[in-house]
Specification:
- The chain has no helices and six strands.
């Protein structure tokens, strides 16, 4: 898991274009899926599943105003 320090190009209901993490930048090639989440406590968030320019698959999740990113492949 990598914590997001900064994200750019993101507006409400739009996908990210460039994501900066503690380990460097990730450039989004295409968004595969996006949607909203609700956890057990009823807190709402957003998620994006996307492919980067190096053809890796990531999941980007917001929860409580904090963005987290996970490498899927």
């Amino acid at each position: 898991m990598k914590r997001i320090e900064f994200y750019s190009g993101m507006k409400a209901d739009e996908s990210p274009r460039r994501i900066s993490t503690e380990e460097g930048e990730i450039f989004v090639k295409r968004v595969i899926e996006q949607g909203r989440t609700v956890d057990k406590t009823g807190e709402m968030g957003m998620f994006f599943v996307f492919e980067d320019t190096e053809e890796r698959i990531f999941k980007l999740i917001s929860k409580g105003g904090v963005w987290q990113i996970f490498l899927w492949s």
